[in-house]
Amino acid sequence: MTQRKRLSNTQSSTQNREEDDDTTFTQPSTSQVQRGLEKVTPAQVDQKTAEVVQYFLVKDQKKMPVRRADIVKHVVKEYRNIYPEIMKRAAHTFDQVFGLKLVEIDAKSHTYILINKLETTDGASPISSPANPKMGLLFVILSVIFMKEGVVKENVIWNTLKKLRVDPGKKHEDFGDVKKVVTDEFVRQRYLEYVRIPHTEPVEHEFRWGQRAEIEVSKARILEFMGELHGLEPQSWSQQYREAHPASNTQPGTSSQR
Known about the structure:
Blueprint: H1 2-20, H2 30-37, H3 42-60, E1 66-67, H4 68-76, H5 83-98, E2 100-106, E3 111-116, H6 117-121, H7 133-147, E4 152-153, H8 154-163, E5 171-172, E6 176-177, H9 178-188, E7 192-196, E8 205-209, H10 211-216, H11 219-230, H12 238-244
Antiparallel strand pairs: 1-3, 2-3, 4-8, 5-6, 7-8
C-alpha cells in the first residue's frame, strides 16, 4: 500500500515537472535573440533549424501536435535564447520546401501543428477526399457533428458508425479498435474533443470539433458532400450554410455555384 502510494506520488511529481517545463521558459526578446545570434555561427543555427524541422515532420506522421516545451527541451536545448529565430526559419522551410504551414493552435500551451498550405489556400480540405480509411472515418464523424450544430452525444456517433458497418465494440480490419481510434487517437491529434457531460449517471460523453479540424477541414466541402448524399443543394441546411460561408451574401434558397 505504502509502495503504491510512493509510486503514485512519484508519478504525480513527474507529471507536475513536465507541466512546469514550459513555465521555466520565457520567450526571448528581440534584443536577446540578436545577442544570442552573435554567439553562434550561421551553420549552427541552420543545423538546429533542420533538427526542429525533422522533429515536426516525425510528429506529423501521426498528426501529433507539438508543444513549445517539448521543442525547447528535446531539440533546441542550449539554443533556447534564439528560439524565435529558429522557429521563424523552420516555418519558412515548411512554407518554401514542403508547402506546409506552421500554425499555433493553442496560445496558452503554445502548441503547434502543420497543415497543408496549398490545399487550405484553395479552400479544399486535406481530408475532404480521404486518401486512407481512417481519414474517411474521421470525415464521417466530423460531418455528423457539424450537421448536428457542433455537439453530439457519443451514442449518436456509435449508432451512425454501426449503420456503416463499423461497430465500435468489434475489431475492424482497417481501423483496429474503433473506439480507441475515435476517443484517443483523433482526440490526441486535436481533430476531436471528447468531453464528459456533467451530472450524468451512468457517465456520458459528447463530441465536438477539435482545434485541428477547425483549421484543416472545409465545412463547405462537408455541405457539398451531404448535398450529394441526399440529392439536395447545400443551402437546404440554412444554419450550417451560413457557418460554412460566413463571408457569403448568398441567401439560403438561391442556386448553388459549384
